């Protein structure tokens, strides 16, 4: 079973996520998902927009042991790099860095957060300004 969690009016689940997800909810409804039943939980922009500092732990609690978490978000380092290289305007960078976000992350910070709670990183990549990490819950 798979759950997909996204931020209303800020992100949306991919059609692939919707098609394969048993449950697809906005981040403010993550608490309605049952605990320890999902083989996979996908978070789309949730770490950046959710106000709860423990949102990663909440998402992890929805996973079965041996389940995987997939996290997609905007990489702050990539945005600032694009801005400093001149490939992005300050106005565009502001949209990517601000736009209602509570916090910014980088792929490196998210990796450390996952590893600190025992997750084993399986895959990590950056495409454009977005990061994607997949990790297994022990």
Q: What are the main properties of this structure?
A:
6 helices, 31% strand, 138 residues, alpha/beta, 6-stranded mixed β-sheet
How would you concisely characterize the structure shown here?
The protein has 138 residues and is an alpha/beta fold. It has helices spanning 15-20, 46-49, 55-60, 76-85, 90-97, 107-116; strands at 2-6, 23-26, 38-44, 63-74, 120-127, 130-136. Strands 2-1-3-4-6-5 form a 6-stranded mixed beta sheet.
Description:
It is a single chain. This protein is 32% helix and 31% strand. Strand 1 (2-6), helix 1 (15-20) and strand 2 form a beta-alpha-beta unit. Helix 4 runs antiparallel to helix 5 (90-97). The radius of gyration is 15 Å and the shape is globular. The protein is built from six helices and six strands; from the N terminus they run E-H-E-E-H-H-E-H-H-H-E-E. With 138 residues, it is an alpha/beta fold. A six-stranded mixed sheet has the order 2-1-3-4-6-5.
Characterize the overall form: globular
Count all strands and give the number. 6
- Measured distance between first and last alpha carbons: 17 Å
Q: Evaluate the radius of gyration.
A: 15 Å
Please write the string of helix (H) and strand (E) elements: EHEEHHEHHHEE
Strand order of the largest sheet: 2-1-3-4-6-5
Q: What is the mean predicted local confidence, pLDDT? A: 91
């Amino acid at each position: 079973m798979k759950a997909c969690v996204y931020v209303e009016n800020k992100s949306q689940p991919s059609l692939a996520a919707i098609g394969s997800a048993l449950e697809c909810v906005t981040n403010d409804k993550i608490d309605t998902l049952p605990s320890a039943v999902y083989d996979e939980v996908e978070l789309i922009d949730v770490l950046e927009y959710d106000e709860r500092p423990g949102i990663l732990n909440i998402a992890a609690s929805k996973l079965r042991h041996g389940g995987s978490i997939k996290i997609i978000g905007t990489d702050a380092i990539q945005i600032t790099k694009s801005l400093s290289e001149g490939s992005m305007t300050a106005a565009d960078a502001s949209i990517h860095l601000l736009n209602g976000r509570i916090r910014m992350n980088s792929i490196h910070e998210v990796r450390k957060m996952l590893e600190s709670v025992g997750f084993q990183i399986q895959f990590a990549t950056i495409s454009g300004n977005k990061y994607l990490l997949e990790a297994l819950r022990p």
